[in-house]
Amino acid sequence: MPNHKKRIIKVCPICKHEFETGGRAGSRNKIFCGWNCSRLARYRHGSQCNKLNKIDCAYIAGFIDGEGSIILYERKNSWSDSYAMRVIVSQSDKGLFILEWIKEITGIGSIVNKPRFNPLHRNSCHWQANAEAAETLLKQILPYLKLKKEQAQMALDFQSKLRQPELKADRYWQVDFRQKMRLLNQRGLTITAEA
Asked: What are the Cα distances from residue 115, in Å, to 58, 110, 131?
């Protein structure tokens, strides 16, 4: 079939360079020019939060408003720096049963134990959910959040942008989002974040 043997020219959405593909040497469905651009644009789908009723949504929203945090953190690895979203709820070890309940009812996240460094303090632990797991939780509890509503909306906007390959590969807007989120999370400071 002559048409299947023809090479075609495409433009990589990441580096904007033209590349040739198709024919016997490559797939006609190829999107990126090479492995490096493909890696920069990769988006991994994760676990999803269970469907919650209104009472559970309001209860979890209260915990996140009071004892929780919504952050964008820098993920360090051997090949590049990237950013990701994380929702965290912290408690002393005395309140571990609450974190276990949140993990059970949402079906997502993990509980991390943090040993004390000061003998006067109790051991602490926190429940955390990342990326799509955190996103699917925030979408459900957003109407019930009071103190951290702006952070939640910013985190949802951030996660939505990561699904676009050219934005996933662009670190500049991610750094900007992280700085705005840090300002929102500073104690005693209230600002309006513009994404």
From this structure: 30, 16, 26
Angle at 180 between CA 176 and CA 186, to 5 degrees: 145
> Which residue, chain included where needed, has tokens 């040497």?
25
pLDDT digits (tens, 9 = 90+) for 151-183: 999 999 998 888 887 777 777 888 899 899 999
pLDDT digits (tens, 9 = 90+) for 65-88: 988 889 888 776 655 556 666 777
Give CATH for domain 54-185.
3.10.28.10
CB count within 10 Å of CB 159 equals 20
pLDDT category at 52 given cuts 50, 70, 90 is very high
For the chain, what are the domain ranges? 2-40, 54-185
Rounded distance, CA 79 to CA 161, Å?
Answer: 21
- In 3-state terms, what secondary structure has residue 121? coil
